[in-house]
């Protein structure tokens, strides 16, 4: 072999070896980058947990070093604010009795006329009913919900169109083909796959670009069963109240008997939708769109759209509507049935998303409580105070509730009780004023739950309500901890969307 050939051969091997080394090095760099990315994601995921854990540890430690006089001051502040929350809750409960009575009277009037409503069919408003779905998460239930909406909703078919708005990262067959085939058979059904969508807000915002001719648009999550007459009740409300811009209905949990947790959530939803929301509307003069079973005047909804950067884009859209002087009403006859999470992990993910979303909304819209109302805005003192309660006091309550628990824990650690009676005294009655606050708060709680019992849905048993009463105090602490977690996630700019599995 000549020197030239030998040199050429050696050079060729060197180049091949160099390429191989560079390839391996690139692979190692890629693997290393992927490793550090995973480490970063892990830290980002668990930092909120560490922040909340440090919050509790630090708070308990601080109280152990406080003198008795300072402890008394803190105790009085926490009990006073918690009493305010209990008092406002029971006041909303009492004021909800009026809307409940009116709703029942309206049903009785329609029943006596063999379900004949005041407005003739040919004078009803045109409705677009939107079912919004993330298909991989709801593929097992979506066909059932679509068929239900098409077959069971009592509304003239020439006045309503059922729209399925969905997104999916990958094709799901044969389901998608079956849905498209169903649309060819049902003239008032339309299937829209929103390409490049990553959220419910993206799906809705795409729909808002379409000119469908609908006067009213109602939005439902994919797990809902709207009551057959729900749309009719909502449209009747729009026709009777020309100033109404949004009608929010009552959401009822129908899988209450599946698990202990779902039964507790069902009671909670009855308390929220049948008591708190209509009571707040009566007391403060405003309602809220809560994301599903909500009916909008289409022109307003298309103008406002949904902000996908907010995890609770529904509440954000409500407050943007209120800032314009829009009227949001709650109608207890506009009923829809939905699924509750049946296990703690699913509930935890869902509630953390809500908690962080509420934090985002409160930060963005707190100006509504003090900024001068614009043209057409009718925010009076009651509404402004209600917004302070909703956007500020509610967020602060997470700290008030948990700080009370930390204070009790510090007293137990420093003066550990030797009997259950002494433990109860430390928790509830360390000072004479505690007795009055405790008794009044218990009365408020019982009154609120009694009213909830009167308006409970058909899926709630007396046993479930009794159990909810027993766990209500720790349940408040659990919710407050979730609120803190939501704040911590917002601090670290957590943005991962955790879906709730539908089955």
From TrEMBL:
InterPro entries: Glyco_trans_2-like, Glycosyltr_2/OpgH_subfam, Nucleotide-diphossugar_trans. The chain crosses the membrane at residues 46-63, 75-95, 398-416, 436-453, 465-485. Residues 219-409 form the Glycosyltransferase 2-like domain. CDD domains: CESA_like. GO terms for cellular component: membrane. GO terms for molecular function: glycosyltransferase activity. The keyword Transferase applies. This is Glycosyltransferase 2-like domain-containing protein. The lineage of its organism: Eukaryota, Fungi, Dikarya, Ascomycota, Pezizomycotina.
């Amino acid at each position: 072999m000549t020197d030239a050939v030998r040199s050429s051969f050696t050079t060729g091997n060197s180049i091949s070896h160099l390429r191989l080394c560079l390839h391996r090095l690139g692979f190692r760099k890629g693997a290393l980058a992927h490793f550090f990315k995973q480490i970063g994601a892990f830290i980002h995921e668990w930092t909120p947990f560490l922040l909340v854990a440090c919050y509790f540890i630090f708070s308990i430690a601080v109280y152990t070093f406080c003198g008795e006089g300072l402890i008394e001051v803190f105790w009085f502040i926490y009990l006073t604010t918690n009493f305010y929350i209990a008092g406002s809750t029971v006041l909303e409960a009492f004021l909800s009795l009026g809307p409940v009575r009116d709703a029942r009277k309206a049903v009785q009037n329609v029943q006596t006329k063999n379900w004949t409503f005041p407005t003739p069919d040919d004078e009803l408003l045109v409705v677009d009913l939107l079912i919004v779905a993330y298909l991989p998460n709801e593929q097992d239930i979506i066909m059932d919900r679509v068929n239900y909406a098409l077959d069971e909703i009592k509304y003239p078919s020439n006045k309503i169109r059922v729209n399925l708005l969905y997104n999916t990262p990958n094709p799901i067959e044969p389901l998608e083909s079956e849905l498209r085939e169903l649309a060819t058979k049902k003239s008032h059904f339309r299937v829209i796959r929103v390409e490049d969508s990553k959220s419910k807000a993206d799906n809705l915002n795409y729909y808002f670009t379409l000119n469908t001719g609908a006067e009213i648009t109602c939005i439902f999550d994919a797990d809902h069963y709207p009551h057959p007459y729900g749309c009719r009740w909502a449209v009747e409300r729009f026709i009777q109240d020309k100033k109404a811009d949004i009608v929010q209905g009552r959401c009822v949990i129908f899988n209450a008997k599946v698990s202990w947790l779902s039964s507790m959530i069902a009671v909670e939803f009855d308390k929220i939708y049948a008591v708190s929301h209509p009571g707040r509307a009566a007391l403060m003069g405003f309602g809220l769109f809560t994301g599903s079973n909500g009916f909008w005047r289409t022109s307003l909804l298309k103008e406002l759209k949904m902000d996908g950067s907010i995890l609770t884009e529904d509440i954000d859209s409500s407050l943007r509507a209120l800032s314009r002087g829009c009227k949001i009403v709650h109608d207890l006859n506009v009923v829809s049935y939905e699924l509750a999470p049946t296990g703690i992990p699913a509930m935890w993910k869902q509630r953390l998303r809500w908690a962080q979303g509420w934090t985002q909304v409160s930060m963005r819209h707190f100006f509504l409580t003090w900024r001068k109302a614009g043209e057409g805005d009718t925010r009076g003192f009651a509404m402004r105070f209600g917004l302070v309660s909703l956007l500020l006091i509610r967020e602060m309550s997470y700290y008030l509730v948990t700080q009370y628990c930390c204070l009790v824990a510090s007293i137990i650690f420093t003066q550990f009780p030797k009997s259950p009676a002494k433990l109860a005294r430390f928790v509830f009655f360390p000072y004479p004023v505690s007795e009055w606050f405790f008794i009044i708060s218990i009365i408020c709680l019982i009154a609120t739950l009694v009213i909830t019992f009167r308006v409970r849905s058909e899926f709630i048993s007396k046993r479930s309500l009794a159990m909810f009463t027993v766990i209500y105090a720790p349940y408040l602490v659990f919710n407050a901890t979730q609120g803190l977690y939501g704040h911590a996630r917002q601090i670290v700019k957590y943005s991962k969307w955790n879906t709730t599995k539908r089955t």
